[in-house]
Amino acid sequence: MTPVDTKAWLFLLAAGLLETVWALSMKASEGFTRLPYTVLTFVAAWASFWLLGLALRSLPVGTAYAVWTGIGAVGVAVAGMVLFAEPATAARIVCIALIAAGILGLKLVTP
To answer: Which pTM value belongs to this model?
Structure first.
C-alpha cells in the first residue's frame, strides 16, 4: 500500500468516527434545541463529509461510502448500548460484528 492509500484510509477512518460523533450529538441536541450539541452536530458532520471527500480522491466510491457508513453504524450502535442502555443482545452484537467484518473485508480486497 502506498503512503497515499494509507492517508486515504486514515481520512476515511476519521470520517467514520466523526459520523459517530455527529449522530450521537444529534441525539444529545434533543431535536436541535440544545445549542452546544447542535453546533457539534454540524461541525462534526461537515468535517466527516470533508474527510470522506479527501478519501475519495484515491479510494473507490463504493468502498469508501460503505466503509464510512459502516464505521458510523458500528460506532453509533455500540455507543447506544453503552451510553443509552440500548439492548445489547447476542443477536445485535453478532450483527454489529458482521458489519465490522464487512468493513475489514472491504479494506482487505480494495487495491
So the answer is: 0.91
